[in-house]
Amino acid sequence: MPCSLSTDGTLTPIVKDPDAALLSAEMRKVLTELATLFPTAIVSGRGRVKLQSLIGLHDHQGLYYAGSHGFDISGPMGGDESLRRKEASETLPVLKRASSQLVATVADFSGSQVEDNELAVSVHYRNLVDKEQLPALESCVDTVVNDLPGLSKHHGKCVFELRPETDWHKGKAVEYLLDALGLGGPDVLPIYIGDDVSDEDAFKALYGRGLGIIVMSDADVAEYRAKGHPDGRHTAATMRLCNTDDVRGFLGSFAAAGREGRCKGRSTPPPASVAGRAVTVESGGT
After folding, report:
1. For the domain with range 86-164, which CATH number is right: 2.60.120.920, 3.10.150.10, 3.40.50.300, 3.30.70.1020?
2. CB-CB neighbours of 126 under 10 Å
3. What is the pLDDT of residues 4-14, one digit of tens each?
4. Model pTM?
5. What is the pLDDT of residues 24-47, one digit of tens each?
6. Which residues, in sequence order, are CB contacts of 254 under 8 Å at separation 6+?
7. According to the 3-state scheme, what is the secondary structure of 154-169?
8. What CATH superfamily classification does 3-75+187-280 receive?
9. Is-contact 60 85, C-beta < 8 A?
């Protein structure tokens, strides 16, 4: 029963400074045990090298990393090798130009921040001082995307993301990892836990063959309903955890089930004792 996890908002709380999103000692302990018992992948929009540094478990043999939304994957090949999507590597000079241009542009928008994620570029606006400047900031991002070939813009939680313009995302990365590890068969129940819009690609990839778990607080669900979405956020996930503490509890119970031999990769949902505080997402999946 392999497990794939997003980072910000899933393994770590979302913080104002992206570079300060470090694993707690408790989460690192749980993640270490989980990766010892089950193949475990960290799938993130962060650059792979930065991701490995933030997680702090680079040498763990059972842990795999898919950085830059899956464009840069390490683990299955062994050692320090990594798989980079050819089209992403070819787009690298364009991404560097985009990053440089955005750094200069974003300077006019106090509180915004550009993060170079190697094979992707993120423009964070969570700390944007004047929220009324958001349309203008997005327009600047659009200008860069339109002026440089081979890039596409994507939305996340308070972030615009620039990626290579190709059909590759977190869902494709998870499918690749499952196949590379020989875990693509019907007797395996893959699990993916994430909170962001980009995690929906992974939820969709596993829908009907695995377990997708979205991390979303009760307050966020209430906010979606207040905006006219009575079923909450539309998602392909089938379960929900409220926050990173719930994620840690779920992973701890999951690891305990594996340690005690109650969870061995069967193609059935984990027992109730593993489910922690997960609850069914009312919006269903499509």
Report:
1. 3.30.70.1020
2. 15
3. 899 889 999 98
4. 0.85
5. 999 999 999 999 999 999 999 999
6. 3, 34, 38, 191, 263, 270, 274
7. EEECCEEEEEECCCCC
8. HAD superfamily/HAD-like (3.40.50.1000)
9. no
